[in-house]
Amino acid sequence: MPDATPPLPALPPGLLTALTAVLGPKGVVTDAADLAAWTTDWRGLYQGATPCLLRPASTSEVSATVRLLAQAGVPMVPQGGNTSMVGGAAPDESGRQVILSLTRMNRIRDVDTLDMTMTAEAGVILKSAQEAAAAAGALFPLSLGAEGSATIGGVLSTNAGGNTTVRYGNARELMLGLEVVLPDGQVFSGLRRLRKDNTGYALKHLFVGAEGSLGLITAATLRLYPPARATAVALCAVASEDAALALFRRFRDRDETAIRAFEYMSGIGMGMVRRHIEGATVPVEGEHDHYCLVDLASSRADADLHGLMESVLEDAMAAEEVLDAALARSDAQAAAIWRLREEHPEAQKRAGASVKSDVSVPVSRTPELIRRASAALRKLIPGSRPVPFGHMGDGNIHMNLAQPEDMSAAEFLARGHDIMDTVNEVVRDLDGSFSAEHGIGRLKTDMMESWRGGAELEAMRRIKSAFDPQGLMNPGKVLPS
């Protein structure tokens, strides 16, 4: 028999030399040991391979790098903090996709507290952007669990949501302008800090939520806000899912502008936090099936938010919607209450295997989502533990499921698609979305045809083809094959 055809080289001859000439030795990583952390996604769902990691330090270097890769027909995978929940920043297993990391582009270019804007490069860590705004006497309000490692480019590319969406919107609403390197290496220079700009198609919005499939965001002009000068945080045990929504409505009706966050947590999830997170203490008596975290904030120092909180909770207790509540009396107590919410993912991880469904429905239908999806999941896998939690104030519930204690992790995870399909049947019936804030990535591309098929998906494919005719920018993500 003739010898098998030898595999094609990962990179065309001479390309690595040309890339090194553009980026310098610090900008090109080829050692297998050094690449390992960049080829596995944050959740460990995908283990890919790459011939090299490229780390440009400026927009001009990104442009020259992309131009070289495009001319050679080499696929590119943009990567920020690698915190994608859906494998959106991981290369595939072919070993031919190059990773482009913008972590060296980490400058805050400008902070203007009169215009209330910040211009930051894509590699700026979200926490660093928050701190830079605070140092200037302003607030950059985007806040999420991975803010210590997620980057500005990544959160915009995924249109990240987080805890304060109910007040400030997703990443898209916090973006005024973008600088983007297109798939052929051209630079789209749109770092405008205008609130009004009706000059044709709003191209900047195409790149937000596109997960790097249309171009690489290299910098962004972001909206800032006045900092909070008065706050109030409370943890409430509530009678039911409907009581949780009723409590949100009470606060909204009294002063919608005061609500910074409104989070729902189940008794099962809080129990996991109690058991698995050292030092976590639930500051209400007994154990309950449903909890809410209420966070109020105002830029007015004289705003009586504690008075507002107490008044609304008194009314809700009289209506038997709130069973017990603990109002934070210090920043430390507020942080301890928030920790109960933020440690949910880690507590679930320590409790065993789990399958995560990041879904959204109209706010009015969140109680029905939690009830129906939980019942359907228990019926699907008896003994399993639904752990719904998240942003009830904007309709985004993380409808997670933890493995039964008498089932192996492998057996449980093998049912992953069945679990997600079960949740999504309920979500579809409630006019919701199968991906609220995590995006599509690689994990959910097979759902796009049934959820976004027809004219909507065809329009997405035409946009992708127009921007990236070679299909080199983050291939295999967002759109189904």
UniProtKB/TrEMBL annotation:
Its cofactor is FAD. Pfam families: FAD-oxidase_C, FAD_binding_4. Keywords: FAD, Flavoprotein. One of its GO terms (biological process) is respiratory electron transport chain. The keyword Flavoprotein applies. It comes from the Bacteria. InterPro entries: FAD-bd_oxidored_4_C (IPR004113), FAD-bd_PCMH (IPR016166), FAD-bd_PCMH-like_sf (IPR036318), FAD-bd_PCMH_sub1 (IPR016167), FAD-bd_PCMH_sub2 (IPR016169), FAD-linked_Oxase-like_C (IPR016164), FAD-oxidored/transferase_4 (IPR051264), Oxid_FAD_bind_N (IPR006094). Residues 46-227 form the FAD-binding PCMH-type domain. GO terms for molecular function: catalytic activity; FAD binding. The keyword tRNA processing does not apply. Belongs to the FAD-binding oxidoreductase/transferase type 4 family. PANTHER family: BLL6224 PROTEIN, D-2-HYDROXYGLUTARATE DEHYDROGENASE, MITOCHONDRIAL. This is FAD/FMN-containing dehydrogenase. It comes from Humitalea rosea.
